[in-house]
Amino acid sequence: MSVDRRLREGLWASADALTPDPVVALRTVERQARRQRRRILAVRLAAAAAAIALVLVGVPWFVIQLRGPVAGTPAARPPTATATGSLLPEGTYRTPELTRERLIAAAVKRGFTRAQAQQALAADRINQTATFTLRLERGQWTQSFNYDRIREGIGFEATYKVIDHSTVVVTEPGGDQTVFAYALEGNAIRISFKNADPQQMCQNDPKCPMGFIVWESAPYIRV
Description:
Blueprint: H1 3-18, H2 22-67, H3 84-87, E1 91-94, E2 98-99, H4 100-109, H5 114-123, E3 129-137, E4 140-147, E5 151-164, E6 167-171, E7 177-185, E8 188-193, H6 198-201, H7 209-216, E9 220-222
Antiparallel strand pairs: 1-3, 1-9, 2-3, 3-4, 4-5, 5-6, 6-7, 7-8, 8-9
């Protein structure tokens, strides 16, 4: 065999060794593609599982928001300027039975003369005793009376708004407002006119002292 031929055969053998088999190469590429697809599928499955978990957690909350609070659980309360019930508890309050002399003394304490007090009592036909009742209910302020144990009636009806722990504003149907000071004393309420000048308020009104008598003769005790 000539030298040239041996050289050519050697070169062909080297070329065959360096050139990969097409079938083997194709199988290698397919294996790599399958691995890549498996990795992509795994990532997608993980993302889908996370989304399902989020939905399962979020749906009950969303349903609760639509349906409102579950029975037996406290509902959220809207913010309010004043918690009226805690500052001035609703209910019915009543004075003890007050003698005529005690009623006159309350008026005199506020600067009226004894004659002015007697004139006010005579105008309301109070001969011996008086008992006053105050009912606070759903923003309504209702004062009633019992005179001499034989005559009853409503003396004053209005709405009220508690301003703070010692002030309440009472508004009559016609719009007139009265500012009262109040103090809780156990199960009783002591009420008085706030920053009022009795003589100025009651000029030329003989019945006016009766307002001070009604509210300031005695505390109103819860019944």
